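Reply to dn_fold:

You asked what the input looked like. This is it:
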Amino acid sequence: MQFIDQAKIEVEAGKGGDGIVAFRREKYVPAGGPSGGNGGRGGSVILVVSENLQTLLDFRYKRRFVAQNGSRGGPKNMTGASGEDLLIEVPCGTAVYNGETDELIGDLTKPGQTLLVAEGGKGGLGNKYFLSNRNRAPEHALPGLDGEIKALRLELKLLAEVGIIGLPNAGKSTLISALSAARPKIADYPFTTLVPNLGVVRKPTGDGTVFADIPGLIEGASQGAGLGHDFLRHIERTRLLLHVIDATSEDVVGEYNTIVQELQTYGRKLRDKTQIIALNKIDAVDKEGVDLEALATQLNHLSFAPVFIISAVTGEGLQPMLQQIWDTLDALNANEQEIEIEVSNV
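and this is what came back:
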């Protein structure tokens, strides 16, 4: 399936029904008076998170969504029926922005979560409402109000705890395929991965953690160069970054610095995320000519992050790296729980 992570749509809530002018004229109601009912409220447009959707592909083919109008009021003080709300399903991880101001309206991150994006118009008042001592037979009513019309920009950000980042051809896709059941396209040329790949990696306890293989970044990605610009947003939701570096590169440290600089330039606190570094492809390294331990030590001094020497192809070093990931995530969870407890006690 083609991965679509941005979409622009227009939503229009329903118009409120008109109020009407009517009078009681029954034989045994001599002083009937006005009896025009109010119009019904127009339907609203509501986004709802669905676990069955993974992309925004549906919005490529349908871009305008209109809710039902309210019905006009009826005689005998009958209020018109309200328009039915329009529920639009979106995938988990969808951020909703005002298409004109680019203001964030809501962030939908939980299954079943809803967001009202366009409110239906109020129904108009019937002439019964205007009855008073001065006006015993009002002959006017109000029309229903128009529903809200909004242009929206939907942006899907992957929900994954661990984001695998690195330059093209660092071996990220091979790594996620070795750790999980994900089967991304793998080849020996850059930019094999054109869309993010998700894989569930099982913990020793049996529960799973979602890893995201983010398409390769290049220098200038934060300014729109290459493939990485469109996918940097997916790193925002991750809690831990697994930085994969090609050990066969002639400039391992330079590759590390390139990615770090792009995270720094992009902002949104990506540079502050906890990192683990994986020096990959050691199966293809001439170990007599390359001191892997010295490279790992140098990267550790630069990043203050744990560095693991691994081979995604042979599986060497993967288990110690995974154990470090589980320990780090557990520590992050504990810290977050402590913060929540402190906030709740304030």
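The first helix runs from residue 58 to 61.
Hope that clears it up.
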